[in-house]
Structures are given as C-alpha cells and as structure tokens.
Write a sequence for this structure.
C-alpha cells in the first residue's frame, strides 16, 4: 500500500494525495486502506521513510569506490536524480520529524546522512564541522533539485551545466576548509 501511495504521490504531489484517491487507484474502498495504515498521517510518514531509504540506497550505491570530488559528484547527481524521479515521495520527507529513535524515519534519515558523511571523508573536514558540511551539502542538493523539479529554472542556461558548476563550487569550498 505504501509503494502505491508513493507512486501516486509522485504523480499528483504529496499535498494532493488522499486516502480516497489511493483507494481508487488500488481498486478498494477507502475503509479497506485502514487495514494497512492508520490514516493519512501514517501513510505520509511511511512514504517519507520509504523515500529516505530509497535516497540512501541511491546515494550509497553511487559513491561506492569513489572519493573526494568524484564521490561528491556521484552523490549529488544520484540525489538530484532521485528527487527529479520521485518528487512526491521526496516532498513527503520535508518538515517531518521522527517521533523517536524507533521511528523508521530516524533510521532511514541516518542512512542517508551516513552516505553523505562517507563523501566528506574524502575531504579534510574537522569532526566539529561535519554537521555544518552535511547541512551545506543538503542545502545545495535539496535546493537545486527541488527548484528544478518545480520548474524553477526557466532561463536558457543548461541546467545540467549549472548543476556541475554547483558540484565544482562545493568541492572547492570543502577543499578550502
């Protein structure tokens, strides 16, 4: 049920995803969904956990065997591709906090952070600056990908070229630390 909800969220957007729309999509009556999820909030949280795990898989796989700028580029491209391919499920992750350490979102979020932390090992980032560097990478990648997904780059410059510029910029900044 969660996978169907995630696919539907990618089509219509997480804000427009409803239990009724999902029930219609999977060919059941809305009350039948409550056998699988507790309600709309539970569905959205499960979609968010799924998205974080999928993004962690994508980024983690992309950086295997790479270090430094190559790992940075691979992770950034994988993250961007995930957001562009799955805009609804990724949007479900924004602003949702884990309810506690046992929340599946907490583990999934840590997996994604772990993949980006592995990228930082290729740079001389002081342990005290790792969280700042992670926030930098998240801001750059998230901002670019969500703006692109929303059609926010309407001028003629090639978007892929701009993204490669962003990677070079981040690499230079991390190397200068």
């Amino acid at each position: 049920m969660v996978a169907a909800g995630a696919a539907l969220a990618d089509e219509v957007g997480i804000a427009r995803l409803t239990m009724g729309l999902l029930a219609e999509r999977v060919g059941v009556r809305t009350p039948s969904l409550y056998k699988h999820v507790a309600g709309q909030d539970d569905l959205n949280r499960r979609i968010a956990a799924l998205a974080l795990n999928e993004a962690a898989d994508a980024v983690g796989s992309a950086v295997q065997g790479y270090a430094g700028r190559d790992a940075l580029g691979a992770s950034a491209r994988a993250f961007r591709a995930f957001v562009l391919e799955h805009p609804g499920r990724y949007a479900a992750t924004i602003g949702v906090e884990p309810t506690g350490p046992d929340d599946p979102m907490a583990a999934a979020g840590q997996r994604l952070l772990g993949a980006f932390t592995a990228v930082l090992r290729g740079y001389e980032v002081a342990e005290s600056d790792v969280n700042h560097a992670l926030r930098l990478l998240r801001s750059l990648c998230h901002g670019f990908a969500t703006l692109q997904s929303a059609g926010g780059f309407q001028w003629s410059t090639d978007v892929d070229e701009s993204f490669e510029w962003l990677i070079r910029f981040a690499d230079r900044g991390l190397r200068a630390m």
About this structure: The longest helix spans residues 40-63. The two ends are 46 Å apart (CA to CA). The chain has a mean pLDDT of 96. The CA atoms of residues 137 and 170 lie 8 Å apart.
